[in-house]
């Protein structure tokens, strides 16, 4: 099949054939129809349309796979968000699952609300909302506030439109239906993995944000997040990347469609950590016991890699 790559810095989608040969460019920088200022998400629909979300314009542009511009949908008129969307998944029926995040400063929380967007009728349905704490700073002299997440959230969805939400700090996964109803929670006992002194030193040296020229540093946690990433497989399994390591390899817990733990897998030693690769995000292609993904290295170079998994005894 063809390969599509979002080149956000140059405001375009590039299309390549299965051998990696360049085919065509879709979109360009600008404010007109089919143009982008800050493209942050894109996806392919089952009927072979390309969706590109422009966070600056709060607009969803629709193209054919041949590069023809079809229409613009102004999502900002329907859904309010402080930033770009946190999630952007296309379900098998062509509907889009997305989430918008807003700050609740009075409670020092972020509120992430999930929506289902139907493209042809261009209507949306609010499904559910979650809340989680943030580290909030109000400068003494007033003005804009600064904040940083205290809990990371990971989201996955499957072909049955179930939505999996994990609060990565602890091993808890909530499972919602495609209509937004909480169906169950998945728990697993987990021995927390502490950060090394060197890791804590490096985190303590990085400012969480800069406000009015002053650097702010949130508290450094003692333990790593239990969950580092997750993906829902086409066979109904949920794969959860943990902070556990075995002989240098990462460990993946596997649950069946009913949320029961069934086995563990170990990855290859150079398996990309959740924060540095796209392997646990939309765009990775899972096939059999392997996954194909674009991964960015420390120098900013992007490479297509294939990873395999082995079952633990």
Return residue spans where pLDDT drops below 50 for at least 5 consecutive residues.
Answer: 272-279
Main β-sheet, in a few words?
Answer: 7 strands, antiparallel
The shape, in one word, is globular
> Over all CA atoms, what is the radius of gyration?
20 Å
Report the count of strand segments: 27
Kindly report the spatial arrangement of strands forming the biggest sheet.
21-22-23-24-27-26-25
Order of SSEs: EEEEEEEEEEEEEEEEEEHEEEEEEEEE
Proportion in β-strands: over 45%
- What's the pLDDT, averaged over the residues? 85
Structural class designation:
mainly beta
- What is the count of distinct domains? 2
Number of helices: 1
Q: What proportion of the residues is helical, as a percent range? A: under 10%
Distance from N terminus to C terminus (CA atoms, Å) equals 36 Å
Explain the layout of strands and helices.
Elements: E1 3-7, E2 12-16, E3 22-26, E4 28-29, E5 35-36, E6 39-44, E7 49-54, E8 59-64, E9 69-73, E10 87-90, E11 96-104, E12 109-118, E13 123-137, E14 146-149, E15 153-157, E16 163-167, E17 172-176, E18 182-187, H1 197-205, E19 209-211, E20 214-216, E21 227-232, E22 238-246, E23 249-255, E24 261-267, E25 285-287, E26 290-296, E27 302-311
Parallel strand pairs: 4-5
Antiparallel strand pairs: 1-2, 2-3, 6-7, 7-8, 8-9, 10-11, 11-12, 12-13, 13-14, 15-16, 16-17, 17-18, 19-20, 21-22, 22-23, 23-24, 24-27, 25-26, 26-27
